Amino acid sequence: MGNGPDHPWGPYFRAKLCELFGKSAQEPGLRTDTSTADEQQTPASSLHDAPKTPSTPGDQFPPLWSVPYPRNPHFTGRDEIFEQLDQHLLPESQHEQAATRRAALAQPQAIKGLGGIGKTQITLEYAYRAREQGHYTHVFWINAASEEAIITGFVALADLLPDFSAKNETDQRKVVTEVKRWLEQCQQSWLLIFDNVEELSLVQEYLPVTRNGSILLTTRASAVGSLAISIEVEQMGLIEGTQFLLHRAQRLHATDEDGMRRPTW
Fold first, then answer.
1. Integer angstrom CA distances of residue 260 from 51, 113, 242
2. pTM exceeds 0.70 for this model
3. Residues 6+ away with beta carbon under 8 Å from 173
4. Is the separation of the CB atoms in 111 and 122 below 8 Å?
5. pLDDT in tens, 157-207
6. Is 61 a residue whose pLDDT tops 50?
7. Which of 27-31, 46-50, 65-69, 142-146 is least confident?
8. Quick one: pLDDT at residue 16?
9. What is the pLDDT of residue 20?
């Protein structure tokens, strides 16, 4: 049935109802247009807002952080190493051609050196500085001392990732594959740290193939081959060592004479 003048809700009857109750057409909620019933029952927003395609992993997610250690308040020095890490890892590098920069981003960075020399502490400090400076949206940390530890780390990441379809997967190998896929498809910048890599050949299959993220390893291996760009960590020099001791003694602002004074017995 149409919505003509003789229809119960046509213009004639609407005018009579308004006259009877002393109201305008808008006050009793009577429509004055001639839209169809289907249009009247459909919210205006749904007429224009088509269903959106699910977002690519990492498109709208808040920052994720899985670093398991607190920051070392006594960390000092190693500025040259941080400069090298920034040069090779940060997407914002302006010193290389675009193609070269993309190739560098796809290759992991390795911090290598003797056991106990401070590789993990350097990496930890770099992670915290990178978060403070907003270099990466997400920072992930995996203990890579053994294959079991690596798999456990990936499973822990699965619990952290939002909208991750394989959270309930019981096959851990499949979980690892899906976490790697998530990282490879993530559109936000991320840093993935593999700490204490004992066997470089073992960790290789767990490295995501990506140009949107950065990968940082720590290892005691003397040679990393073509797997990563390496930075050798050496013992602190006299100045850095003095700064470290003064910092630990809470005398970082002591004078140079205090820093170099020999103890008297």
1. 69, 28, 8
2. no
3. 151
4. yes
5. 999 998 888 888 899 999 999 999 999 999 899 999 999 999 998 999 999
6. yes
7. 46-50
8. 60
9. 59
Q: What is the pLDDT of residue 157?
A: 95
Range of lowest pLDDT (93-97, 139-143, 159-163):
93-97
Interacting residues of 61 by C-beta distance below 8 A, sequence separation 6+: 138, 162, 163, 188
β-strands 213-219, 229-232 pairing? unpaired
Structure tokens at 213: 């993220």
CA distance 188 to 137: 6
Beta bridge partners of 232: 112
Q: Do residues 124 and 69 touch, judged by C-beta distance below 8 A? A: yes
- 223 torsion bin: left (phi>0), alpha (psi -120 to 50), beta (else): beta
**Closest by Cα among 228, 237, 235 to 111:** 228
Kindly list the distances between the CA atom of residue 40 and the CA atoms of 28, 34, 35, 54, 157, in Å, as whole numbers in the listed order. Answer: 16, 10, 7, 29, 48
